[in-house]
Amino acid sequence: MDRRRLLGPLNTIIPNIGISSNPNDIKPDTTIDNDEVSANQIQNFFLKTGIIENANGSAYLEVGNSIIEVSVFGPRPIRGSFVDRASFSVECKFLPYITQPGEQIYNTTNQFNNGNSNTNANGRTGLTTIEQRISAYVETALLPSIILEKYPKSTFDIFITIISTEEGVNNNDEDDDNSAPNEQLLRLTNWIVNCSSVALVDASVELKDIVTSGIVKTTSDGKVIFDPRSQGNEEEEQEEGSVIGVASFMNLRNDELVGIWIERQGAINVGDTEMNNILDGCNEMSKKIRANINTYLANSLE
Amino acid sequence: MILDQSDSGKVVIPGQYITPTYKLQTESNVIEKYISGKGTTITPIQIADQSKVVSVITASILGKVYVNEIQSTKPEEETDGKDKDDEEEEQQKVKTYLVVVIPKSSSYINFQKNHQQELKHLVDSNSISINLPTENDIVLVKVTKITLKQIYCEILTVENGDNVLKDGGIGVNGDLSHVSVTPSGGSASLSNYQTIASSQSTLTGAQFQDIGENFRGIIRSQDIRSTERDKVKVIESYKPGDIVRAMILSLGDGSNYYLTTARNDLGVIFAKSENGSGNLMYPLDWQNMIDVTNGIIEKRKCANPFT
Amino acid sequence: MILSPAERSYLYDSLSQKPPIRPGARSDHQFRPLEAKTSFLPNSNGSARIRLNDGSECMISVKSKVVVTKSVTNLIDVDIDVAGFRDDSNFVSNLKYNLTSLLITNFPSQYLKLTSKYSFKLFIDCIVISHSSYPLSLISLATYLALKTTRLPLLVSEVNDEEIEEQPTFSDDWDNAKYLDEAFEPPIFITLGVIGTNLLFDPSIEEEQVLENGLIVSFYKDNVITPISNINLATNSNNSNFKGLNQKLIIESINLCNKYCPAIIKALNTLTEQDDEGDDDHIF
Lengths: 302, 307, 284
Description:
Oligomer: heterotrimer
Number of strands of chain B: 18
Strand content of chain B: 25-35%
Low-confidence stretches of chain C: none
Strand order of the largest sheet of chain C: 1-2-3-5-4
CATH topology of chain C: Ribosomal Protein S5, domain 2
Number of domains of chain B: 2
CATH architecture of the largest domain in chain B: Beta Barrel
Radius of gyration of chain B: 25 Å
Strand order of the largest sheet of chain B: 1-7-8-4-3
Number of helices of chain B: 4
Shape of chain B: elongated
Order of helices and strands of chain B: EEEEEEEHEHHEEHEEEEEEEE
Number of helices of chain C: 5
Order of helices and strands of chain C: HEEEEHEHEEEEHEEH
Helix content of chain C: 25-40%
CATH class of the largest domain in chain B: Mainly Beta
Shape of chain C: elongated
CATH architecture of chain C: 2-Layer Sandwich
Largest interface: A-B, 82 and 86 residues
CATH class of chain C: Alpha Beta
Distance between the termini of chain C: 46 Å
Number of domains of chain C: 1
């Protein structure tokens, strides 16, 4: 053994990991098997960063009929006691004329709001329960990705505005089909997380990794549907029962799961198979979205 | 993906692997050590199906990556002729590189140009992010209030860096920056700490600053200059409105950074006479400034930019 | 900040052991001891109070109202009040969302159906008088007890009122009031802490400060069901350990809940039975 030289440790392993940084090499997967289009294709989405000049970072995302806008502010100073890590808060708001998925279920305690979902029981404007739930999910998912230690004495604020949803504007019809509010909510949350991550990158906030998420639905007959869409006339699906889940990942950081939210409709067992299908499916979808976001970001700097 | 030095200037995305912290060049038998600089972080990456973990430097912001060798600054040791060759050889065996990611932002162009000289600075200040000031950073501040004991100021910009908050933290530019508006625009609900600030990551004691407020600092009277500290008079050193070059002593308490100007190159850079109502003044010496239009001489602790 | 850096580090290391060493010598799937009382509110259809030995206390009242089934979107309404938190705060809103979602998804609404036109609507009011750890599991266990002991007045009018214009009438004897269903076991929430590869049931406030992540799992009819979600359980703290988790742990948590939760349900059932028997201030 050569004792005069500094040698590297024995059994050195160079990680066989990572992806090419050359944006020309990263192309979104355009070869789609026509048979699998319905089951495995992710909806096309439109993404743009930096559209809000007054924010430190912003992103705008359109998918289907949903439009989401996210702006990031900070780091701004915080008062009070000394904190060695940044605080982080998320505010998610629907524009006032938008029907919030499930608002009839979750916001009905207030007899006095006359359908104005942005006013709570005290008559103050604030976030509705649904908005708070989305905010909490986004916060939980993004919290592990931000290097908060690098921003002492400060705070980050993320403001999410939902400009449009799949179901469109408020129509207070009695026969309004609100049979799958959970699914609508999860679909929306999925894209909100993706959009918020991009806004954080645009704000040059130091991140451990970009968080992306995926959404998968499994039905009681074992079907696994990627990125489920609003069903229109396929009413029979809802009779069967389905589990639907959103999961957010840091795909380049050991596929760490940072956010999970699973709901279901109808009678269905939530066993190992269903969970594995959902988690693996979400991971796969998250990777696809990540690849698209990577390409977009790399091109934006060229 | 592992970058060579020739890959400098490539675009990286947050989370993207740049290089492992240690690398062995087998053909030349050289160990390359990489240091994580600004805009990067070290990620422990698990290798599939093994419990091994490799530390990899990954990008933490969107930008272009630069890898530069750090020349050893250790003084050459006295050696006798016999071992000299060996010593030199060993010195070359470990090469240290600094990995930095520089964002697109145009104010970094200068920074990028002379980052060869700034390398040490970059390594030192790695712990705090690009925009926030940290210990030993030179900053420009604006004096907001003076008392007999200390000077209160607002931190505007970090030298060799960017503005701390180019927008007062809320992203409002232009005319609006002096008006109180809620962060998400006038239409939003009240941004109340208690309703929005979630319980998951915010301490109960923490309060948000008023909109548009910047990071603040304090210069204590004994930190104004390095000589005759006990005779210093705050009123003869700084006045509200002055732009002062100062150095960060510490992160301070919850509200203020602690700053010092006890160096020749630190002190007032811009000041207007007659409490800001007059004209721009020029320094006569280190403690006097003159308003050339009306001849008023006022006392200030001036910075000497030519040291 | 509840713990000093040294304490945090010590606790983190203890909890990351295999098996974890928990404060109070609990095993990883063991709940903290709790004390409960049911059916003590004379004006409510069902009520329950739970206290933990760390001083956490939660009170639930279940009230009912007869509604026209078609006119309401949901037959269960939940309201939560937490001392020290504003009702519109993120903290309270999320507790409320979670509990509502759990009950809406899993509550068998046929128990509330009176006639073909009318139903009972349940109003579940919950007051968290004091709490230290994340109170969702506490609230849900109390809700379990309250719903389990909820009694609704006996319907004496016709069940099939499709053709006739008749409002339901009830027996005015409270002794005839019926439980929702003898075999009914309401859904509950379990909070789990994730640290390393360990999963800790019912983390205490000290444990929450060092957890790497937190899971909320729901359990009903001997099975894990939805909603399932994750959250940073440490309230108003700068938990620097918080990070992502391995997705295998989700599967593991479900298996663990399937294994241990029936024991929790059993314990709660025993509790209601004992409360039923040896109680003198029983109002019914």
